[in-house]
Structures are given as structure tokens and as C-alpha cells.
Design brief:
Elements (H helix, E strand, L loop, with lengths): L8 H4 L13 H13 L29 H33 L9 H9 L9 H24 L7 H9 L2 H8 L3 H33 L1
Helix pairs in contact: 3-4, 3-5, 3-6, 4-5, 5-8
């Protein structure tokens, strides 16, 4: 999106790529997830159950935009909207499973598998390929909706902070820019999970009802 609006910074730095190596952050991609996974085995129980990670931020130079606030908002929304599109695509995959896989005496139907997977259950006798697709579909919905909600949380450096910043008058924007880095991270860690659950649970309930009645 930034490239289409006139800022080629990320493209020139080789960041417009699906190669994960180009996006690895030593601390956010390796150290923190590594501590969360292996910490309990090394006696560091404080990291148990806290899987937090991030990639290198994508560089964007807003002064390259023709209309800075409008274009910054469009670039900001590109990420969350992509998560929403992926979640919708996953719902469509589950709908295909529901209608395309009939049940037999020895194997449950696609509808049964999808509904059970949404309840975090595995059905005995289910086709392994269908079960795998259902698991991937449900995981994709939960992960992408979680990222959609979390990234719109109005705390720097998350995407939501750009939207809020661009709506503020100049003096308020200056104060907003002075929010300490440590406070932002503290809010994300302490409040982020609660915010995600507050919006994610109702969204998943609606999707479950839609799939069950499809």
C-alpha cells in the first residue's frame, strides 16, 4: 500500500517479500518466542504460557505521500484489513467443508467435523485431511481476528495509534507522541489480552452460529 501511494522505502530495503528471513527480528522473532517455548524447561517459569513475538517493523516514510494523513491511514489499515480478509477466506473454506463432505456410517460429515473443531474437539473416525483443514480454518480465523483486534489497539507502535494520532489536533498529537515506550509495552502486555478476548469471543460466537445454520 505504501509503495502504491508513493513511498518505496520498504521495497528498496527488500522488505516487500514473502521470505520470512527478511522480516526476522532477533529479539521479537527468536528470543521472546524461544523463552516462551523453552523457558519452562530451563527453570524460567515466568515465561510459561506467555507466547509473545513480533517481526521487524516495515519502514514507512510518510513525507513521501501526497496526502500524509489520508495515505498514512490507508497504509495503517492495510494490515488489519488483510487479517480480516484472511479470516473471511478461512470461514469460506469451512463452509465448503460443511457442504462438500457428506457423512457416512464410518465417517462424520464435514459439518460435524467443523462444529466439533470450533468446540476444540476431535471426532473419532473423521477423515484426517478434513480434520486438518478444519483445524487450520479455525486457527486461521482465531489468529487473524486476534491480530485484527490487537493491531487496532490505540497504543504506539500498533496500527491503531496511527489512526488516533491522525485525528488529534496538533498539541494533543505532540503529547500523544511523548507516550513512553515502556508504558506502551506495559499496556499491550497487561491489557492487550483482555481487549482481544472482549471482542474475539463475540465474533467467534457469531461465526459459529453462521456456520451451524449454513
Amino acid at each position: 500500500m505504501a509503495s502504491r501511494l508513493g513511498d518505496q522505502t520498504a521495497r528498496l530495503q527488500g522488505r516487500v517479500t514473502l521470505n520470512p528471513i527478511s522480516h526476522i527480528d532477533p529479539v521479537g522473532t527468536l528470543l521472546f518466542p524461544g523463552l516462551a517455548i523453552f523457558g519452562p524447561f530451563l527453570g524460567m517459569g515466568m515465561f510459561s504460557g506467555m507466547l509473545i513475538g513480533w517481526a521487524k517493523p516495515t519502514p514507512v516514510v510518510t513525507r513521501n505521500f501526497a496526502k500524509i494523513k489520508r495515505d498514512d491511514n490507508l497504509v495503517t489499515l492495510a494490515g488489519p484489513v488483510s487479517n480480516l480478509i484472511l479470516a473471511v477466506f478461512a470461514v469460506l473454506v469451512l463452509l465448503v467443508l460443511i457442504h462438500a463432505v457428506p457423512g457416512t456410517d464410518n465417517s462424520p460429515s464435514g459439518r460435524d467435523v467443523v462444529m466439533a473443531t470450533f468446540r476444540y474437539q476431535l471426532l473419532a473416525g473423521a477423515n484426517s485431511s478434513i480434520q486438518a483443514l478444519a483445524l487450520l480454518g479455525v486457527a486461521a480465523i482465531e489468529i487473524n481476528l486476534s491480530l485484527f483486534i490487537f493491531n487496532l489497539f490505540p497504543v504506539p507502535p500498533l496500527d491503531g495509534s496511527h489512526l488516533v494520532r491522525n485525528m488529534l489536533p496538533y498539541n494533543a498529537m505532540q503529547m500523544y507522541d511523548r507516550i513512553p515506550f515502556w508504558l506502551s509495552w506495559l499496556l499491550m502486555i497487561l491489557v492487550g489480552g483482555t481487549v482481544i478476548r472482549l471482542f474475539l469471543m463475540p465474533a467467534l460466537a457469531v461465526i459459529f452460529v453462521v456456520l451451524s445454520r449454513a
